[in-house]
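Recap from last week: sequence in, structure out.
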Amino acid sequence: MNRIRYIRKRNGLSQQQAADLMHISRKNYGRVERGELLPSSRFLLRFSKAMNVGIDEILPSCAGRTVLSCSPVEETILSLYRTLDRSGRDYIYQELLTESAISAHSSLKDGS
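Predicted structure tokens:
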């Protein structure tokens, strides 16, 4: 994902520094940056917050369909997300983190 590398370098960070900010291993960070591993939603959220950018800046354009394909619903969600100000984007980020935590807790509780 060249956009991830570009944003990291624009912020003047090494892979290790970016991984530390995101609380993930440098190895996994590097795999995502090199395109060996698709970024998870959790990765995108953490990267977005650590680099102070919107998720729409990280992902390639849906119209170009270069790396990821977007369904019409995903395109609508992305366009609505782009209309939010920083506080709206932060709210979405917090809600997604809360939902991820609830899902992870439920999986552990259920033994999944």
